[in-house]
Design goal:
Elements: E1 5-10, H1 15-28, E2 33-38, H2 45-52, E3 56-60, H3 73-89, E4 95-99, H4 101-107, H5 112-121, E5 125-130, H6 135-140, E6 143-147
Protein backbone atom coordinates (compact mmCIF):
# COMPACT_ATOMS: atom_id res chain seq x y z
CA UNK A 1 0.00 0.00 0.00
CA UNK A 2 1.30 3.45 -0.91
CA UNK A 3 1.45 6.38 1.47
CA UNK A 4 -0.75 9.42 1.00
CA UNK A 5 -0.07 12.57 -0.99
CA UNK A 6 -1.09 15.92 0.53
CA UNK A 7 -1.35 19.19 -1.43
CA UNK A 8 -1.63 22.57 0.31
CA UNK A 9 -1.84 25.25 -2.36
CA UNK A 10 -3.33 28.60 -3.34
CA UNK A 11 -2.65 32.28 -2.79
CA UNK A 12 -3.78 32.26 0.85
CA UNK A 13 -1.56 32.32 3.92
CA UNK A 14 -1.04 29.07 5.80
CA UNK A 15 0.35 26.50 3.36
CA UNK A 16 3.74 26.16 5.01
CA UNK A 17 2.17 26.61 8.44
CA UNK A 18 -0.14 23.65 7.80
CA UNK A 19 2.78 21.53 6.63
CA UNK A 20 4.76 22.51 9.74
CA UNK A 21 1.82 21.49 11.91
CA UNK A 22 1.64 18.08 10.26
CA UNK A 23 5.42 17.64 10.60
CA UNK A 24 5.22 18.44 14.33
CA UNK A 25 2.30 16.02 14.79
CA UNK A 26 4.16 13.25 12.96
CA UNK A 27 7.35 13.89 14.96
CA UNK A 28 5.30 13.74 18.16
CA UNK A 29 4.00 10.33 17.06
CA UNK A 30 7.62 9.14 16.67
CA UNK A 31 7.54 9.16 12.87
CA UNK A 32 10.71 10.04 10.98
CA UNK A 33 10.18 13.48 9.40
CA UNK A 34 12.13 15.51 6.84
CA UNK A 35 11.26 19.06 5.80
CA UNK A 36 12.73 20.15 2.46
CA UNK A 37 12.35 23.74 1.28
CA UNK A 38 12.44 24.69 -2.40
CA UNK A 39 13.36 28.33 -3.26
CA UNK A 40 13.83 29.25 0.42
CA UNK A 41 17.07 29.85 2.28
CA UNK A 42 16.27 28.05 5.55
CA UNK A 43 16.35 31.19 7.70
CA UNK A 44 12.68 31.24 8.70
CA UNK A 45 11.45 30.89 12.26
CA UNK A 46 9.64 27.62 11.57
CA UNK A 47 12.83 25.93 10.35
CA UNK A 48 14.66 27.00 13.49
CA UNK A 49 11.93 25.45 15.63
CA UNK A 50 11.62 22.27 13.55
CA UNK A 51 15.35 21.68 13.95
CA UNK A 52 15.03 22.11 17.73
CA UNK A 53 12.37 19.39 17.68
CA UNK A 54 14.76 17.04 15.90
CA UNK A 55 13.16 17.25 12.46
CA UNK A 56 15.63 16.93 9.58
CA UNK A 57 15.54 20.14 7.51
CA UNK A 58 17.08 21.17 4.20
CA UNK A 59 16.81 24.43 2.24
CA UNK A 60 17.55 24.73 -1.47
CA UNK A 61 17.22 28.32 -2.55
CA UNK A 62 18.00 31.94 -1.92
CA UNK A 63 14.70 33.11 -0.44
CA UNK A 64 13.86 35.47 -3.33
CA UNK A 65 10.57 35.57 -5.22
CA UNK A 66 10.74 34.83 -8.93
CA UNK A 67 8.50 34.98 -11.95
CA UNK A 68 8.78 32.22 -14.52
CA UNK A 69 11.00 34.14 -16.95
CA UNK A 70 13.23 35.51 -14.20
CA UNK A 71 14.32 32.30 -12.50
CA UNK A 72 18.10 31.94 -12.83
CA UNK A 73 19.80 28.67 -13.72
CA UNK A 74 21.40 28.27 -10.28
CA UNK A 75 17.95 28.41 -8.68
CA UNK A 76 16.64 25.82 -11.17
CA UNK A 77 19.58 23.60 -10.22
CA UNK A 78 18.84 24.07 -6.51
CA UNK A 79 15.27 22.92 -7.10
CA UNK A 80 16.50 19.82 -8.91
CA UNK A 81 18.85 19.13 -5.99
CA UNK A 82 15.92 19.43 -3.57
CA UNK A 83 13.91 16.93 -5.60
CA UNK A 84 16.89 14.56 -5.72
CA UNK A 85 17.30 14.89 -1.93
CA UNK A 86 13.62 13.98 -1.46
CA UNK A 87 14.03 10.91 -3.67
CA UNK A 88 17.10 9.85 -1.71
CA UNK A 89 15.31 10.22 1.64
CA UNK A 90 12.00 8.67 0.57
CA UNK A 91 12.94 5.19 1.79
CA UNK A 92 14.23 6.32 5.20
CA UNK A 93 11.50 8.71 6.34
CA UNK A 94 7.80 8.31 7.13
CA UNK A 95 6.83 11.89 6.17
CA UNK A 96 8.59 14.31 3.84
CA UNK A 97 7.37 17.87 3.38
CA UNK A 98 8.36 19.49 0.09
CA UNK A 99 7.71 23.12 0.94
CA UNK A 100 7.21 25.34 -2.14
CA UNK A 101 7.72 22.36 -4.46
CA UNK A 102 4.50 23.30 -6.27
CA UNK A 103 5.85 26.82 -6.74
CA UNK A 104 9.08 25.42 -8.20
CA UNK A 105 6.95 23.28 -10.48
CA UNK A 106 4.87 26.28 -11.57
CA UNK A 107 8.03 28.28 -12.30
CA UNK A 108 9.34 25.49 -14.51
CA UNK A 109 12.34 24.83 -12.25
CA UNK A 110 11.30 21.17 -12.10
CA UNK A 111 9.04 19.31 -14.49
CA UNK A 112 5.69 17.73 -13.78
CA UNK A 113 7.14 14.41 -14.96
CA UNK A 114 9.97 14.64 -12.41
CA UNK A 115 7.51 15.43 -9.64
CA UNK A 116 5.15 12.62 -10.62
CA UNK A 117 8.05 10.17 -10.74
CA UNK A 118 8.89 11.00 -7.12
CA UNK A 119 5.24 10.85 -6.07
CA UNK A 120 4.74 7.47 -7.71
CA UNK A 121 7.92 5.91 -6.31
CA UNK A 122 7.77 7.29 -2.76
CA UNK A 123 6.62 4.92 -0.06
CA UNK A 124 6.48 7.69 2.52
CA UNK A 125 3.80 10.29 3.16
CA UNK A 126 4.48 13.35 0.96
CA UNK A 127 3.29 16.91 1.50
CA UNK A 128 3.65 19.46 -1.31
CA UNK A 129 3.02 23.17 -0.81
CA UNK A 130 2.97 26.11 -3.22
CA UNK A 131 0.85 28.50 -5.23
CA UNK A 132 -0.51 26.26 -7.99
CA UNK A 133 -1.21 22.56 -8.33
CA UNK A 134 -1.58 20.90 -11.74
CA UNK A 135 -4.70 18.82 -12.33
CA UNK A 136 -2.69 15.61 -12.63
CA UNK A 137 -1.30 16.03 -9.11
CA UNK A 138 -4.69 17.05 -7.74
CA UNK A 139 -6.22 13.89 -9.23
CA UNK A 140 -3.43 11.75 -7.73
CA UNK A 141 -3.54 13.37 -4.26
CA UNK A 142 -5.34 11.96 -1.25
CA UNK A 143 -5.62 15.31 0.58
CA UNK A 144 -6.09 18.56 -1.32
CA UNK A 145 -6.45 21.87 0.49
CA UNK A 146 -6.83 25.09 -1.47
CA UNK A 147 -6.08 28.25 0.51
CA UNK A 148 -7.68 31.37 -0.89
CA UNK A 149 -6.57 34.85 0.11
CA UNK A 150 -9.45 37.15 0.93
CA UNK A 151 -7.40 39.92 2.53
CA UNK A 152 -3.73 40.27 3.48
CA UNK A 153 -1.55 43.15 4.72
CA UNK A 154 0.62 42.73 1.58
CA UNK A 155 -2.31 44.20 -0.35
CA UNK A 156 -1.73 47.55 1.35
CA UNK A 157 2.05 47.45 0.95
CA UNK A 158 2.90 46.20 4.44
CA UNK A 159 6.08 44.16 4.73
CA UNK A 160 6.27 40.60 6.06
CA UNK A 161 6.67 40.45 9.83
CA UNK A 162 9.20 38.23 11.58
CA UNK A 163 7.43 35.52 13.55
CA UNK A 164 4.14 35.98 11.68
CA UNK A 165 4.91 35.63 7.96
CA UNK A 166 8.37 34.11 8.27
Amino acid sequence: MRASLHLYYGDGKGKTTSAVGLAVRAQGAKLRVAFIQFLKDGSSSEIRQLKQLGITCFAFGDGKFYRKREIPNNVRESCREALAKAAKLADSYDLIVLDEALTALGLGAISQEEMLELVNLAKCELVLTGREAPEQLIARADYVTFMKKIKHPYDTGKQARYGIEF
